Amino acid sequence: MDNNNIVKGIKAGDKNAFDILYQQYNLELFRTAFLILGNSQDAQDVLQETFICAYINIKSLRDEEKLKAWLFTIMKNFAYKKIKKRDREVPDENILLKVDSYSMKNEEIDYSCDVKIEDALMKINPKQREVLVLYYYSGFSIKEIAKITGNFQGTVKSRLHLAKKQLKKIIENDFNLFESEGINEG
């Protein structure tokens, strides 16, 4: 079923059409939310909020062909709300003690040569990470990303360039750290 028929079906109250929408986009939306948030529980919450919002507001979608971009815009907005909420929360003292304990133990742990892209992505500026994820993981064009993020195409290109540059630097630094620690990359 194409986006046009899915949207028309949902607007007409067809629950099967909404199930198809969910099946078609849930994995891609979850993956993108996870890469933005770095936490699967938060990504799952954002995914649920996205589909609830989409169901409630589907009648406001004027161009059915832009369904995917519309869903990603909703998801992005909920993801950034989640980040802002997380930043405002006061950490539990027990968590801080665990982090300190982990940090001390971490010094004793040998570094692994298996550099995970997701870990490197979490070190990138969130706005740059968003553009990188939408472009490479979700397959959106520069023009589509500009619409989703509400930025100019030039801004999207600049953020994409900076994100790639930053990601490369992070990965190179991680490998240099491994080499300086005398760890073989095999």
UniProtKB/TrEMBL annotation:
One GO term (biological process): DNA-templated transcription initiation
Domain RNA polymerase sigma-70 region: 21-88
Swiss-Prot/TrEMBL keywords: DNA-binding, Sigma factor, Transcription, Transcription regulation
UniProt KW Transcription keyword: yes
Gene Ontology MF terms in the entry: DNA binding; sigma factor activity
Annotated ranges, domain RNA polymerase sigma factor 70 region 4 type: 116-167
Taxonomy, superkingdom: Bacteria
Family indicated by similarity: Belongs to the sigma-70 factor family. ECF subfamily.
Name of this protein: RNA polymerase sigma factor
